[in-house]
Amino acid sequence: MPSETFDYIIVGAGSAGCTLANRLTANGKYSVCLLEAGGNGNSPVVKAPAALVLMMRSKINNWAYQTTPQVGLNGRRGYQPRGKCLGGSSAINAMLYVRGHRNDYDSWAAQGNEGWSYNDVLPYFIRSECNETYGHDSEFHGNAGPLNVVDLVCPSPLNKAFISSAQEQGLPHNPDYNGKEQHGCFQYQVTQKNGERWGANAAYLRPAMSRSNLKIITQAPFNKIIFNGQRAVGVSYFQGNQLHEVRARREVIVCAGAFGSPHLLMLSGIGPADTLQKHGIPVQKHLPGVGQNLQDHIDYTVAYKTNYNRDTFGVSLRGSARVAAGAAQWAAKREGIVTTPYAEAGAFVYSGEGLSAPDLQMVFVVAVVDDHGRKMHLGHGYSCHIEVLRPKSRGEVSLNSANPLDAPRIDPKFLSERDDLELLVKGAKRQSKILESAHFAKYQPELIYPVDWRDDAAIEADIRNRADTQYHPTSTCKMGPESDAMAVVDSTLKVRGIDGLRVVDASVMPSIIGGNTNAPTIMIAEKAADMILQSA
Asked: Per the database record, which ranges form the Glucose-methanol-choline oxidoreductase N-terminal domain (predicted)?
């Protein structure tokens, strides 16, 4: 079949793919083809921050994956929303700007990944960032990068109750949790600009769209990587029922995420040989680590109803009128309550003494959250997530079939390690003291799923009944030294044993970071762009 040839092919236009498409085309020397399975992601449902609730619980710009039945979750199938449009998951997420702890990156370097310590990656966080609050006077922040970071435009007064209560429980107020110290409570900063979502599409891709050396193909799910011997030379993809090909002179760069990247590698014959042979896929390269080492933040959410409906979102006549007025205000001025990501305040928490970094994260939401927003409740309320930041449980991504249009098999193995459950119980008890203090008394809260916080067994049962992902899957194509038999890529993100092929996204994290993963994924792509251009 006829095919076009480019210097670089990028598979996946998520946070990493958009970043690379911009950086690799900026000097005008190299041509790039960017393939994306979804659409253009340019609708008001993406731009309006509060509209995330419509995408998270549906298939609008969303793969809406399901996991295998999880033994640790009483046999329930988990829900895994992932972005399916230009911008990827940065088009459907809650826009929270979080980098993780410095120890996370020092741990990557200690695992044999030269050039990935905190001091090595900090310049790339700074380069990517335009922080309207801290960018001008902090050694930790940037003020000229593509990714705009702001304080909440219209925060709920309810955040004050959360922060005051958290302080009373011993947490320091720490507005710049991405600076010198992560520990403490705060209102989240968000990736927005002028009242709109500012994901990777807006930040990186749109400014590059007018460049003649960039071609973007949407509605183009991948089929497989094309090889000449042990060198990647192209990609085949679908448009409608037709297969098409594009060819790469220099590299194929896989940016399809923690689920999509190992899926594409395995469909192309790179992965555990027994898995490939089981599905009749010829083995191009036996790499047993492909799809292994899946790590994700297990999350437990508690929700409270309240009759005090002015500061929260909910299903009511007054709530509907408030949202309608807010939508008109946002349409006219890009201001008001439609700028909310719902997740507005939070904290990084130590579960005990002697820890080198917080091991729990709280995300306070000014609406009722039940089953990812898929179970609706009449009335108003608020919620709070508590998540284990460095879980010991390890899952895997594999194949359901050799059909590239079938979803990958996702098995996070949540709570397969007892320590994760015990830490989550401890975190839930700590969280309850914050949420049920006198600071919330005027809201007269009522716990939707009542739990006796003095009873560890009851908390454990509720966790197994309702916990699920916090949307941060990583590490399925882990970066590691040659001595690590499960490493898929080296410290330059090149796939081991294959020429002309890299993976650049959250799947390369050797271990999950302590926080949300969008900003770190963009950082990885910024650093990868430098490495690619230096080797060109």
From this structure: 83-106, 257-271
Tokens of 35: 């393939």
Pairwise CA distance, residues 338 & 49, whole Å: 6
Return d(Cα 433, Cα 446) in angstroms, integer: 14
Residues 118, 126: Cα–Cα separation, whole Å: 12
Percent of the chain with pLDDT over 90: 95
Give the residue carrying structure tokens 């071609």: 215
Q: Residue 412 is encoded by which pair of tokens?
A: 């996070």
C-alpha torsion angle, residues 306, 310, 314, 319 (rounded to 10): 140
SS (H, E, C) 449-495: CCCCCCCHHHHHHHHHHHCEECCCCECCCCECCCCCCCCCECCCCEE
Q: For residue 200, what is the enclosing H or E element?
A: helix 200-200
pLDDT tens-digit series, residues 116-134: 999 999 999 999 999 999 9
Q: Are strands 379-388 and 314-315 parallel, antiparallel or unpaired?
A: antiparallel
Closest CA to 383 of 362, 413, 403: 362
Reported as a single tens digit per residue, the pLDDT across 183-231 is 999 999 999 999 999 999 999 999 999 999 999 999 999 999 999 999 9
Q: Taking the chain, what is the end-to-end CA distance rounded to the nearest angstrom?
A: 28
Q: Give the single-character DSSP code of 208.
A: G
Mean pLDDT of 424-442: 97
pLDDT tens string 56-68: 999 999 999 999 9
Q: Is 136 a catalytic residue?
A: no
- If one counts every other C-beta atom within 10 angstroms of the C-beta of residue 176, the result is 17
Looking at the DSSP bridge assignments, the partners of residue 153 are none
Out of 244, 263, 385, 472, which one is annotated catalytic?
472
pLDDT-derived band of residue 420, with 50, 70 and 90 as boundaries?
very high
- Cβ–Cβ under 8 Å, residues 412 and 430: no
For residue 506, give the nearest of 214, 90, 111, 145 by alpha carbon: 90
Any idea of the CA torsion for 123, 125, 130, 136, to the nearest 10 degrees? -50
Whole-number Å distance between alpha carbons of 57 and 370: 11
At 368, phi and psi to the nearest 5?
Answer: -75, 130
295: three-class secondary structure by DSSP:
strand
Residues 6+ apart with CB under 8 A from 363: 94, 96, 188, 343, 346, 384, 385, 387, 470
Give residue 2's pLDDT band: very low, low, confident or very high (50, 70, 90).
low
In angstroms, the CA 88 to CA 52 distance is: 13
In the predicted model, is pLDDT for residue 333 greater than 80?
A: yes
Q: What HEC string does 6-33 produce?
A: EEEEEECCCHHHHHHHHHHHCCCCCCEE
1: pLDDT strictly greater than 80: no
List the beta bridge partners of residue 239. 242
